[in-house]
Amino acid sequence: MRSFFMLVAACMAVSAYAQKKNNSILLNDRFAGLDTAFERVLKDQLAAGFAVAVVEKDKIVYAKGFGFRDYEKKLPVTPNTLFAIGSCTKAFTSSLLGILQKEKKIDFDEPAVKYLPSLKFYNEDMDKHISIRDMMSHRTGLPRHDYSWYLFKTNSRDSLLQRIRYQEPSFGIRERWQYNNFMFLTQGLIAEKLTGKSWEENITTYLFRPLGMTRSNTSIEALTKDPDAAIGYGIKKDSIIDKLDYYPINAMGPAGSINSSVNEMAKWVITWINSGKYEGKEILPASYVNNAMSAQMVSGSGLPSKERTDVFFSSYGMGWSLSSYKGHYRVEHGGNIDGFSASTCFFPTDSIGIIVLTNQNASSVTSIVRNMIADRLLKLPYFDWNKDILESNKKAKEAAKAAEKTTSSNQQKNTRPSHALQNYEGIYTHPGYGSMELIVRNDSLFGYIGANDVTWLKHYHFDIFSPFNIDKDGSIDTSANSPLKFQFFMNEAGEINALSLKLEPTLDALKFYRSPRTIKTNAGDLQKYTGDYELNGVTVKVSVKSNTLFTLVPGQPEYEMSALGNDRFALKIAPGYYVQFEVKDNEVTQLTFQQPNGNFVAKRKK
To answer: How far apart are CA 476 and CA 416, in angstroms?
Structure first.
């Protein structure tokens, strides 16, 4: 009898081992041949590298890297290589508010300004009615206004926040879905206000640390210090893999500055598949998870096409895009920032998640690889996604070239600017965007936005100029003609006082108002201008305070002036108003108020 039981036990052990081995074979069968297919994707899409991880229920079942994280040095991508995940950051930021909601510190349907008093929108109606839920689901009525943060860089989140009040909506609240990064910046600032900690500290405390995402970080500085970090690349001239600079997105961090690996992002996706729990511990409230991956706003028509009859509906939750993928409910978000693309995706009812990260700018690799894996795991018919994207891209390029041939230019030949180029110099400012400085160098006009971004402005016709980017090596690609145009305006005195740029496609061109370039002065330099001047029986007083020149006309406020050089000053709060001093033998004899309604001379009293 004892021998019989020993025989049964042995048979059971063999059966269990065989079952485990068979399950392993079946699991491997699902990924058989994918490595070769992914190498083909890498080659066909001209990508430097990418990494992919697949999770099922609470485990990583596949994780690999392909290509190079450093293309020049041929350093390979691994599942632990860090990539910038761009807008995949958004779900992290909204989750902070989900945690605060459970703690009853916030109500998603209350006006956002209740929790962040320094937040002001374009009008009072928006202040009263835009809720946190509206911001989480891109339904505030505000368009992207992305050039405000992308071109007009700042390290100050408060500075970006102050720009919102000057950013015009293009639709009413909840009238149309419009993607907006500023609204996720604002969510991060609300979390800061309620916790007393920075967004970076909150992400680490509430999410990274509990999930064991020990190498994930929130800044380019931290990314570049990691020994297994990817370098970003683009494609130049349709065929050359070209290294790109990292984009310093710190100020807009809550909308897109997280850097992570597929292995660590897998932990994040496992949490969502398991209703907010990771390794049995609640990381996110289950009620928030359900709401976040439920439709809050229709984001597009979502109609099936003739080619894609089984991919349809398009909605947005809270930091997640929602759609039907061949009959399976898909929750996904993409991410793009200079040199990097990302896709974080999961199918909640199938308990499957897919993360694809690549160091290629605006890449198709993420969607190709994601869909290839989804088809395998969901047991769907084979479809050649790589070939499909290649053909689609080819058709798009051919259509663009054909459109170029049929498009005629509206350029008026043989025209000249209304002013000498020096008259266009100055600082041009829009309060919802920022400032740029225009400077003449070697008979050409250049625009400087920040310290490093330089644009050559080539005369197009009349007072309109075309911008051309200047590469790092100083070369200008004049074949890349931008549809963007700088249009200049003048005031009643005939002085250039503004330019317009159509930086937001859904709105009219934005006006940037000019202030002249100023020079630094000290009290000693300014002392010679001080004194009393007689203007038609009225005494005008000029004085120096804290290295700044002021003028006082009886019955008017005292005006602060900025030095322009050549004894000329601008009134700071009155654009188009100037004071020109006349100097003989180093003695000031008179001043002239130069105004749109004329010039007025005041003699200096002895």
So the answer is: 22
